[in-house]
Amino acid sequence: MVRAGAPVLKGTFRMPSGLHVLGRRKPQGAEIMATPPPPAEPTARPAMPSLSAEKWRQLAHWQRDPEKGAAIRSLLGKAWNAPNTAIGLGYGLAGYGLGKVMGKNPHIDVRKDSIQFTNNPLGGVGAITLGNAVVFNGNPYDPHDSDGPDWTNDKAMSPLEAARNAEGHELQHVKQGEQLGPLYLPSNLLGGAYSLIRDHQWHGPSNWNERGPGANPPRPWARRPQ
Ligand SMILES: [Zn+2]
Q1: How far is the CA of 116 from the centre of ligand 1 (A)?
Q2: How many helices (H) and strands (E) does the chain have?
Q3: Using one digit for the tens of pLDDT, what is the confidence trace for 29-66?
Q4: How far away, in angstroms, is 111 Cα from ligand 1 center?
Q5: How far is the CA of 202 from the centre of ligand 1 (A)?
Q6: CA of 127 to the centre of ligand 1 (A)
Q7: What is the pTM of this model?
Q8: Which of 105, 132, 149, 214 places its Cα 20 to 30 Å from the Cα of 72?
Q9: Could you tell me which residues come within 8 angstroms of residue 162 by beta carbon, excluding any fewer than 6 positions away?
Q10: Residues 100, 114: Cα–Cα separation, whole Å
């Protein structure tokens, strides 16, 4: 026990009798012989990469951030869709070359989640989406420049509405491809064939691949109307 005011020491003391004692306190009348050096500071450990509370908060936020989550999902979807995209790029580039030869003023642009070919003679009756590649017959974004179907005629739409409508529809097929991956083409061929038989048209209500993109607002999938 240390009394208040008593000097707290640890060391070797010589008692008046000449006896050396080791202790925490200097006994009365004793003489200090030696005081051991204070214990060395614990040697600094190799610096750990320490994160401040703010950084931890940011990291936790990053993991929960819905935008970042969506970006990762989108990236995975594009990887899953890549086999379709490879076919679509080959198909679109072939049409691009053909369009050049035919003097159709073909274009290639990157819009939203897709590589878009416009004024492309291989766009079918309107457009064909293969993976993250969309091949438009004509140019829904610029009807004056369009050398293909009139995107504005049938629905009494403004050119802007027509472009949004066409893009909105095809981007749902892009999302389908990101979900189905290698099953996208079989699903489209089966759905189209089934609709040809039941509805006598490819884009009929029996084609499950076209119901969602054809809905308002467009979405990847929609139930068959009752
Ligand atoms: Zn479609």
Answers
A1: 15
A2: 5, 7
A3: 888 777 666 666 666 665 656 777 888 777 777 667 77
A4: 18
A5: 10
A6: 8
A7: 0.69
A8: 214
A9: 140, 143, 151, 152, 155
A10: 21
Of 67, 39, 84, 90, the closest CA to residue 186 belongs to 84
Instruction: State the distance from the centre of ligand 1 to the C-alpha of 148, rounded, in angstroms.
Output: 17
Task: Tell me how far the alpha carbon of residue 170 lies from the centroid of ligand 1, in angstroms.
Answer: 6
pLDDT at residue 183 above 70?
A: yes
Q: 173: CA distance to ligand 1 center in Å?
A: 7
H-helix or E-strand containing 135?
Answer: strand 133-136
- The residues with which 25 forms a beta bridge, in sequence order, are 8
Q: How far apart are alpha carbons 78 and 70 in whole angstroms? A: 12
**Model confidence over 136-171: pLDDT tens digits?**
999 988 878 777 777 776 666 777 787 888 899 999
Q: Phi, psi at residue 95, to the nearest 5°? A: -65, -35
